[in-house]
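Practice problem: predict the structure.
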Amino acid sequence: MNFDIQKIYENAIDFIFLYGPKMIGAIIVWIIGLWVIRIAGRGVDLIFNRSKLEVSLKTFLHSLFSMVLKVLLAISVLGMLGIEMTSFIAILGAAGLAFGMAMSGTLQNFAGGVMLLIFKPIKVGDLIDSQGHTGVVKEIQIFATILLTPDHKTVILPNGAVANNEITNYATEGTIRVDLEFGIGYAASIDKAKEVLSQIMKAHPLVLDSPDSFVGVVGLGDSSVNLAVRPYTQPKNYWEVYFDIYEQGKKALDQAGIEIPFPQRVIHTVNT
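Answer:
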């Protein structure tokens, strides 16, 4: 019994002398490493703040940066304790590869989100057309862009598809042209119709003075002379101007006695 106790004591002493310094060193490295990671994280935050990145991207990149450094620190500490890390790193790499293949679509959306948030081809509040949907950008997240359509439907677009395909941004220049078309009868005065429609655009509070609004003949239809009406406004006011000018233009043309004809045909009969 005494022999067993003595043996255990000797083994404990040997373990302490063999692994004690390594454990103490590993603990010190772990503590200092966490402190360095915190300092590095603050430095990264300062860089992100100066670069004016989106809040969601800054938060994600900060977490990713901190997690990678902590994993590297843990591997270093375990190596100091004498644990063989080669096999562990190989397993970790294989698991990462398998995870990446399984999550390829999600990773593509993440990469697209990073591109959108860094290069900013669109931003919150812009009126855009993407993937067959037109709407105002409500939010740009890491994996998806959220649009609010004119009929107040929420459309969630994967960032991978948005970043890798065409985007029409109507808000880049700060103004947008509203394309409208009115048809008047062939007997009506074109000059008078142009004057009436020009006055409607000039009086509308949301139509911009510059660029100048325009009214001109765009085509000759079967039953009407077609006028192109082109006011300019801010992108956020597009649909309000669109509907207002159509409604107010129709009323003004009616009051001016200018006919907006419906489709009609003239039939000639020949007596034989």
